[in-house]
Specification:
By secondary structure, this protein is of the alpha/beta class. The chain has 20 helices and 21 strands. It binds fe (ii) ion (FE2).
């Protein structure tokens, strides 16, 4: 029997779609890569039915299917549960918005209209609501290499849960404990980000600022309204006020004014960020230890937006009781599309865990044929040539200080560029952070860039105490060995750590060949890797890449085996002229 399942996420943001056909994962795509709007849409009570049609259509195209061929749509949210659990919480809310009767009913009505909206366009299968935390947990367990594992989901809020602790065995997930709104680490990070003059999506910036600060200064202020228990935490909603646009309580507790602009961030706010990071790691480590008591296992699976916190991930794994860890690379809400589809597959049709879905990599988005690449190249006034040895030629460019857009194969699913939609540069150059920001990224110079490192060489450069599968996806941060730090200044954060991506010939052969060629030239088995974008979603198509290339000052663009340059840029330097910075 042929089964086609679409997983769909769009209740809040990070709208995404995943397609399973028979026992194959055909595709998983975030709508933002196609509609070119970061996070696809804002999370509003009035728009959960903004369906990610571009991602649906692309998935169907990749599966050679029509909407009428889909047997099940699994949606990563449960509207009725949300409605029941969010009224009358006796908290400050914005009129007509989250937490008010009017706002929650508006949200509910939009959600329950979704099946009809999709049926109107030809879908005639079964529509299934999957609890949000179950979808996160499924996204962590089913792609993991484990038959049985403890499973934790930790995010801002699903219907009402912000943390769920459970287990999984032979394809069945079960829940053991939950922590509910208003107790939420994810929402606390959003609130602190906004308090510091940034958006609710800037947790990664707060995390990088934390490395500059002293946690001791504000940790006791956090403890005034966040009670840390051995098995979890409780937050005082009168201080947090997650659903009110009000920072007066934070101003009072921390003795600092709320900022309008991140440009005003001073050492005080770095200390605040450091305390938040310490609090988060402390709470998560407690939860992980408690989980091991509830469900003894060697293996831990993790998902939810908070699982993108690589500093906490490393702390809970290295200091915690589990021997193995798998973290869903698309740990944010995008991954719930994948989780909902996998949950439906295993729980409706099959009782066992299907190894066909275990993650070999995360390159689940669209790829493009040579014909399509050439057609896109023909649209722009650029010079290009096909290389017979793209790894060696591009390694030589990078070793001579060039910033290269590296576009290969299928796009990554999840927020990190992992060598298929990446900007690459020489990690040895102490000025490369500034140069990368000047040419294309326009980020704050304090934010670190990350290295992709050959897996076999990683332990000579980084202090890795326990092997973690999650290190393949830039989800763990490790200290750079002191004797190596001066050799790779562009990828060492102020605290001496790097958030690394391990690269093997199995996980990404072409990227592995490139880094190997760079190592042959320089002795350094790693490259600076950042996402291929400039204040926009990561590029998806060759056309996106070419437009970004033209709009910015990236030196060279490489699409598959084509090396592309602007007309005023001379030919690539031959490999023999690579500078030796080491
Ligand atoms: Fe979530």
């Amino acid at each position: 029997m042929t089964i086609n399942i679409l997983g769909l996420n769009c209740a809040y943001h990070e709208s995404a779609v995943a397609l399973i056909r028979d026992n194959q994962l055909i595709a998983a795509i975030e709508e933002e890569r196609l509609n070119r709007v970061k996070h696809a849409k804002p999370a509003l009570t009035g728009n959960p039915n903004d369906i990610p049609w571009q991602a649906i259509n692309t998935c169907l195209e990749m599966g050679n299917l029509l909407l009428s061929d889909i047997d099940i749509i699994a949606f990563s949210f449960n509207p009725l549960k949300r409605l029941h659990n969010n009224l009358n919480l006796n908290e400050q809310c914005i009129d007509g918005e989250w937490g008010t009767t009017e706002g929650e009913k508006k949200f509910y009505k939009k959600l329950i209209g979704i099946p009809e909206q999709i049926r109107a366009l030809g879908f005639n299968g079964q529509f299934m609501w999957v609890d949000h935390c179950v979808a996160h947990s499924a996204s962590a367990y089913y792609p993991s290499p484990f038959k049985e594992a403890a499973v934790i989901s930790v995010d801002g809020i699903g219907e009402s849960e912000s943390v769920t602790i459970g287990g999984a065995r032979d394809g069945k997930l079960f829940s053991l404990k939950e922590i509910n709104y208003p107790n939420s680490l994810g929402l606390l990070w959003e609130k602190v980000s906004m308090f510091m003059g940034m958006s609710e999506y800037d947790a990664c910036k707060v995390m990088s600022l934390a490395s500059f600060g002293d946690p001791a200064r504000f940790i006791h202020q956090f403890h005034q309204f966040v009670k840390v228990n051995e098995d979890g935490f409780e937050m005082d909603i009168n201080v947090c006020q997650f659903r009110a646009n009000n920072f007066a309580s934070f101003e009072q507790v921390f003795g600092l004014p709320a900022l309008q602009d991140r440009a005003a961030i001073t050492r005080d706010y770095m200390d605040l960020a450091a305390a938040l990071q310490e609090l988060t790691s402390e709470i998560l480590l407690n939860i992980v230890k408690h989980t091991a008591q509830l469900y003894p296992s060697k293996n831990l699976c993790l998902a939810g937006g908070v699982a993108l916190n690589c500093v906490a991930n490393t702390a809970i794994f290295e200091q915690g009781p589990f021997e193995n860890i798998y973290i869903q690379p698309a740990a944010n809400d995008a991954g719930t599309a994948l989780g909902a589809a996998l949950y439906a597959y295993h729980n409706i049709f099959y009782g066992h865990k299907n190894p066909a879905f275990e993650a070999k990599d995360t390159y689940l988005g669209p790829g493009y044929s040579e014909e399509e690449v050439l057609a896109s190249l023909g649209m722009f006034d650029l010079l290009y040539e096909r290389s017979d040895n793209v790894a060696a030629e591009v390694a030589a460019l990078i070793a001579t200080g060039k910033v290269v857009g590296w576009f290969q194969g299928r796009m990554e699913f999840g927020p990190r560029a992992l060598g298929n939609r990446s900007l690459l540069a020489d990690p040895r150059d102490p000025d490369m952070v500034k140069r990368m920001n000047l040419l294309v990224k326009h980020r704050e110079d304090h934010r670190p860039f990350c290295p992709s490192v050959l897996k076999d060489d990683a332990k000579q450069w980084f202090d890795i105490k326990k092997d973690a599968d999650a290190a393949h996806y830039m989800l763990m941060a490790y200290p750079v060995k002191p004797e190596q730090r001066a050799l790779i200044p562009a990828v060492v954060h102020v605290d001496g750590t790097s958030r690394i991506q391990l690269v093997s010939a199995e996980s990404n052969p072409k990227y592995h060949a490139l880094i190997s060629a760079f190592k042959a030239l320089t002795g350094v088995p790693l490259l600076l890797n950042t996402s291929f974008n400039d204040r926009e979603p990561i590029v998806c198509s060759p056309e996106d890449a070419l437009k970004t290339f033209l709009r910015t000052k990236i030196d060279f663009l490489v699409i598959d085996n084509f090396i592309i340059r602007k007309k005023d840029v001379p030919h690539a330097a031959p490999a023999s002229t690579a500078t030796e910075l080491v």
